[in-house]
Write a structure and sequence with these properties.
With 169 residues, this protein is of the alpha/beta class. Helix content is 47%, strand content 9%.
Amino acid sequence: MKLLTHRERETLRETFRPDRIRLLFIGEAPPASGRFFYSRNSGLYRAMRDAFQALDHRIDDRNFLRVFQQSGCFLIDLCPNPVDHLDSPSRRRARDRGERLLSSTLIRLRPQRIAPVLRAIADQVVRAASRIDWHGELLQLPYPGRWSHHRREFLKALEPTLRDLLHSP
């Protein structure tokens, strides 16, 4: 697997940015492993694809990212660089530094809804949104992770919003 540079990741991500962001997913950071949602090779990609497939069986690996985009969904990261290899205090500091960058990104993207995909970053996301006086809907999602019960919880929490996004213009 070729590791993408920060610039390559962001270029790839931007190819899938919708004109109007109805739901902005916010991850913690790109994984240190080099896996990346928009490269179609991460656990989060598979969990998100599964959530969409549960509502529309026509969705598969060939069309998922386009359906994700056409539904007004976009995924960004709180931290621009991997943090999963850091110790807890360093990781927390990186998340806190990501808040200001996230605030300016929220101003630029103007999402209707925001969904942090890791409970551990929810405080930073809420503070970043509050800093710019953002007043949309905030979805609290558990990270789908490796465990099947986390994945089920993620799917259950996301299903009503996805149903709305997939069935409304």
